[in-house]
Structures are given as structure tokens and as C-alpha cells.
Design goal:
By secondary structure, the protein is α/β, with parallel strands linked by helices. It has helices spanning about 5-20, 55-65, 75, 80, 85-90, 110-120, 135-150, 155, 185-190, 195-205, 240-245, 285-290; strands at about 100, 125-130, 160-165, 180-185, 210-220, 250-255, 295-305.
Length: about 300
């Protein structure tokens, strides 16, 4: 039996045992409750009749992984804002897939989830910065992520690490070898650099099998505000993002409000980094920003058309 599904079985047994207690502990409320999983499309966009979906076994394994000891408490504390279960279900993840995560960051927030979920029956590929990039930030990120994987081989021994960064590393995997590509809060970084966003999206398109899915989350700009194609404040106009990704050849197949935050007014002097977890202003008005929570985010799903 696979590790993730073994954990799932144990998790289920433990849950039943707790349910039998006279006074079971009550879970703490999430900072931002996730809306019911929903799918919507932009005006004039028709939904395809058949969409990829997660199977029951994967979702049980995912629940167990989310509760597993491999996750840091700091990362787990952000579940109320990042909604990993609902997000990955919306993307239609299955634990038998080959999944490419683009730019997992130095801390590998989603790596703590995807690596054990895919370890036994699927494959997890983490695409980070180009090692040829000599910037201190890039090198620090590469080394910190590698150290995280090396520190827990029982969880990360089967992770494949590759490079995907414009302009020198745009072929991280063989063409049409990946079932699902995911990237979280990275599009705004690519928009800030000339040509980076189209190049990165084209590389992801090339990596996906026909019919494969791209799942993307980013900070959502006020739709009534003028479109900032550079996303200087970290916020991206949702329709602009959809149009850009479609220009790379993808078919838009839906959006979810699972990572929405109506408390975010999108107009902070220091941009999205004013809010947690960055708190760019330090202690100034920290309680106010903590009460707002993390940014308002769109969650989009695309498909590489079948031939």
C-alpha cells in the first residue's frame, strides 16, 4: 500500500476514534473560510462538457497528507488563506499524475503536500530558478529549497528538481510529458520582466500532454482599476491574465472563488506585500492588516487542447 494511502487509512481510523470521545476537541476557525468549491467562467466563455476531476482515493490521501507531520506549523497555519485541498481538487489532481510545480519557492509550501501525495503512484517535479542565474536571491532560493529536500529524504527522495526560468532554461522536461502544471502567485513576477510571462507560459504549454491542465493562482487586482500590465503592486487583472494565457495556446476552462478575500481592497501603498505574510510596513497597522488577512486571489484552470 502506498505511503499516502496508508496515511489516509490511519488518519481515517484516528478520526473515528476521536469521534467516539465524549468531548472531542473543536478545531480552530480558519482565518478566511473557503467558499464552497465553485466553477465560473468569464462572460462569453463556454464550459467544456468534460473536465478533469480528482478521484475519491486521491482526495482521501490528500486529506491525510494535509494532516501529516511533514508539514511545518507555519505552513499549516496558512491553510485558511491558501485552501490547498479545495484548490488542488479544483485543478483535478490525481495521485497517479505527473505534476510539474513552477517556482515552489525556498520554503516549498506546496512541496510539503505534493511530494508525499505523488510519491508512490505519480511523480512530482519542482521547477525552480535557473542555476546559471547568479543573482543572490535566485541562488539563496535554490540552496534553501535543496536543503529542505535533503533534510527529509523519506518525504522528498523522489522529487525531481529542474530549472524553468526565462531566458536560459525553458525546457525543464521532455515535451508533452506532464499531466498537470501548477503555479502559485508567480505570474505577477513574470509580468514585471520583459517577455518573461509569454516565455514561461509557452514552456508550460510545451511540457503538458494534450488535454493536460494548467492550474494558476495569483493576487487579483480590482477589476474596475486600470490594467497594470506590469503588476507593479503584485496584483494582476484577472481578465488580462486569462487573455494572456489563452494567447499561449491554452483553453480557459474555469475559475474558482476558493481563494477570494473580499476584505482586500487591492489599493495598498506597498502593494500586496502590505498584507500578511510579508507585512512590508513592519509593526505599523499590523493588527489592521492581520484582520484583513492574505490577498484576494483568482484561481484559474486551463487545458492544453487535444489534437
Amino acid at each position: 500500500m502506498s505511503i499516502s494511502r496508508t496515511i489516509a487509512t490511519a488518519f481515517a481510523v484516528a478520526t473515528l476514534s476521536v469521534a467516539g470521545c465524549a468531548t472531542p476537541p473543536q478545531p480552530a476557525p480558519a482565518p478566511t473560510p473557503a467558499p464552497a468549491l465553485s466553477t465560473s467562467t468569464a462572460p462569453s466563455k463556454a464550459r467544456p462538457a468534460s473536465l478533469p476531476s480528482s478521484d475519491a482515493g486521491t482526495l482521501a490521501a490528500l486529506d491525510a497528507v494535509l494532516a501529516g507531520p511533514q508539514r511545518s506549523e507555519a505552513n499549516r497555519a496558512r491553510d485558511g488563506y491558501r485552501h490547498p485541498r479545495q484548490t488542488l481538487e479544483f485543478f483535478g489532481i490525481r495521485d497517479t499524475q505527473t505534476v510539474l510545480e513552477v517556482w515552489p519557492g525556498s520554503g516549498g509550501w506546496y512541496s510539503e503536500i505534493l511530494a508525499p501525495l505523488l510519491r508512490d503512484h505519480g511523480r512530482y517535479i519542482a521547477a525552480g530558478y535557473d542555476p546559471a542565474n547568479d543573482s543572490k536571491f535566485a541562488q539563496d532560493t535554490i540552496h534553501a529549497y535543496r536543503a529542505k529536500l535533503d533534510a527529509a529524504p523519506a518525504t522528498y527522495d523522489r522529487v525531481t528538481v529542474v530549472a524553468l526560468q526565462n531566458p536560459g532554461a525553458l525546457a525543464p522536461v521532455p515535451p508533452e510529458s506532464v499531466d498537470l502544471v501548477v503555479t502559485f502567485r508567480n505570474l505577477h513576477n513574470w509580468l514585471a520582466k520583459d517577455g518573461a510571462a509569454p516565455a514561461m507560459l509557452s514552456a508550460m504549454y510545451a511540457a503538458l500532454k494534450p488535454g493536460g491542465v494548467l492550474g494558476l493562482v495569483d493576487h487579483r487586482a480590482d477589476p474596475a482599476a486600470p490594467v497594470d500590465a506590469r503588476a507593479k503592486l503584485g496584483y494582476v487583472n484577472e481578465q488580462y491574465a486569462i487573455d494572456l494565457i489563452e494567447q499561449a495556446g491554452f483553453e480557459f476552462i474555469g475559475s474558482s472563488e476558493v481563494n477570494a478575500n473580499p476584505k482586500d481592497t487591492h489599493d495598498w501603498d506597498q502593494g500586496v506585500w502590505t498584507l500578511p505574510p510579508t507585512y512590508r510596513l513592519g509593526d505599523k497597522d499590523r493588527e489592521r492588516y492581520a484582520a484583513i488577512g492574505e490577498s484576494d486571489r483568482f484561481t484559474l484552470r486551463f487545458r492544453k487542447p487535444r489534437r
